[in-house]
Amino acid sequence: MVPGMRLMVRVWGRGSGWFAEGVRTLSGRSRSAYVGAFSMALSASIGLQSVASVPARAADPGIGRAGPGIALTVEHERPTPTPEPPGTAAPEEIPTPSPVPPTPTDAVVPILYYHRVEPLPMGFDAWSAAQQKSFLQYDVLPVAFAAQLDWLAAHDYTTILPVDLTRHWATGSALPAHPVIISLDDGTHDWMTTVFPLLQRHGMVAEFYTNVRNVYRGALSFDDLRVLAAAGNGIGAHGIDHVQLAGFAGGARPYSDAQTFKEIAGAKAILEREVGVIVDSMAYVGGGLDAALIEMVRAAGYTSARTIIRGTMQHPDQPFELRVVRIGVHDDVVSIRAGILDPGLPTFAAMVRARGQDLTAPPNVTCLPAQQAVTPRSGMSADDVPPGVPDPASTGPACGADAPGLDGTTAP
Ligand SMILES: [Zn+2]
Fold first, then answer.
1. What is the pLDDT of residues 274-295, one digit of tens each?
2. Is 163 strand, coil or helix?
3. How far is ligand 1, taken at its centre, from the CA of residue 209, in Å?
4. Low-confidence ranges of the chain (pLDDT < 50)
5. pTM of the predicted protein model
6. Where are the domains of the chain?
7. How far, in Å, from the CA of 161 to the mean position of ligand 1?
8. Spatial CB neighbours of 185, under 8 Å, sequence gap ≥ 6
9. At the top level of CATH, which class does the domain 107-384 belong to?
């Protein structure tokens, strides 16, 4: 209700033997309302005869006065609240403080690092040494991969994606009790024929770091990547042309800054356009990185990047230097040709369970040439260790530990 004025006019005559009064309610408190009240009082005094006479009361203002007079009493009305229908009153809003995410801390998250998962091909023994080296350096046997997934499931590990880790750091969202990230690099057809079915069988997901060149060359298709993404897997970027962009001795770069940024941002843009997902993570081709490259990766809109530096401890102030556990073809494989595994997967278990400090030197340390990292482990037969295969237990990051392109040439 709009508050207004209640006007009472009282007029008394000479001798105060008679009395008249009137009451008028005026809405609003505007100046015109007050003018109206005064006009009413004036008209009441003039037309007094028309106003009903009432007995004088002790409290009337004219009692005891010598002559005629007029008195005005103005009462301002208080606004009366409109009653709300039951059940419709809006609940009182209690301001709640916005949640403050806890300070992000280091997290033990093993990031397993694979390329291809394939059986030993027919005719392998007739292959050239270079072909054999490529297979043994970048492949894992399906029987071993399946056993590793079995081991993870049996030991209560839950697969997450890099975005889950960065979201955990940004918002405080919970991680599972035993998180693990499975990642694969490059992009080959075995991802669809072998890796994806095994992941699905175990209810697991992985981050598939794809280089665009492999798709354009038909190693797998954008349709394949859409299938992977639809099943909850992550699609990460791994360059357009699969060129190592940094990490060379003396800071040498194969590309200008503009070309380098195009390789980083372009891979993200192409994959996002063709697959229809957000590509939030990338893997450094060849593992090469430096501070300037990290800034480009950040500027391109990624929220994380995976290195090939060994370790299971991930640091919230280094989301663009995620550490890995590299899984090799020899890990817990007694015989590659017969596909016989060491029960219990002791090597795999030890790498996944490694906690605490990084297993290798910090980033931006000149890496060792791959051939210097070859160290046959005990119990390994000589013919199972081809030249150039880095020992997974090696304590130094190996240069060129990434896969060569489909044409067999290594990235520069
Ligand atoms: Zn690669």
1. 999 999 999 999 999 999 999 9
2. helix
3. 8
4. 1-23, 25-67, 72-75, 77-83, 360-412
5. 0.66
6. 4-76, 107-384
7. 19
8. 113, 114, 115, 209, 211, 238, 283, 402, 403
9. alpha beta
